[in-house]
Amino acid sequence: MSQNENQATIIDGKSIAAAMRQEIKQDVIKLGFQPGLAMVFVGDDSGSEVYVRNKVRASEEVGIKSTVHRLPEGTPYYAVSGIIRELNDDPDVHGILLQLPLPADIQDKTNELVNKIDPGKDVDGLTVMNMGRLVAGMEGIVPCTPASALHLIHSVEKKLRGMHAVIISHSLLFGKPMAQLLLAEDVTVTTAHAETRDLPDIARQADILISATGQPHMVKGDWVKPGAIVIDVGIVRVPNPEGGKDKIVGDIEFDEAAKIARAITPVPGGVGPMTIAYLLKNTLKAAQL
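RESULT FIELD:
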């Protein structure tokens, strides 16, 4: 972590993730065999392409064998389901990831396809079985991005009991599991979303403010309670006003929020690198099980 000129701590997800990957690398060596991670990538979404490439690179770094099963846009539901079934039965594959979002023609089948994955190989933690175990407080595979956000919060504050968190996201992918992780830490949780009434006032009550809407700079600096821990999960490309390549920004108006917050994650370089590190950790866990 580093300090900015206004004294807010910048939570350096890159360095925290790098340290975590080194730990995973050592644990893979101790495992005695090479874990296998299979990614199913349907279509040609450019953002997903970057994510998949980064996941492959990170897997190689820690000694996990990764394979990408690329299926063209227009691949029918039954063909994607068939690939997942084959991977479930492959003893050399310990983790399976269905890269989201799926193309528009099968997007309505996302939940069905995710739940075709063997829960023991579900390294995204999104199957009904793993979600149910999370809600019940039982051991299971936890979704990568919420686990990453909690790790970064703990890098600032170990004891969260009694704090109030506001999560601006009610999605199955992030908001709901994030709430469960914080409730398990005895945090009071308010789950909101982009359409919540009086959202700025609700956000100002948060000791921990987390946003994952994908709406660039939706959360303004004056939404932040002085001294809050701010976690920005949003990531979106916007045109660069100075020309050239698009800029990557998050949900939160960083410069203004950093003047008020106790600690804040940047975009890029915050939650993103940690999410990939947790994917590797979940793959290792699945192999150990």
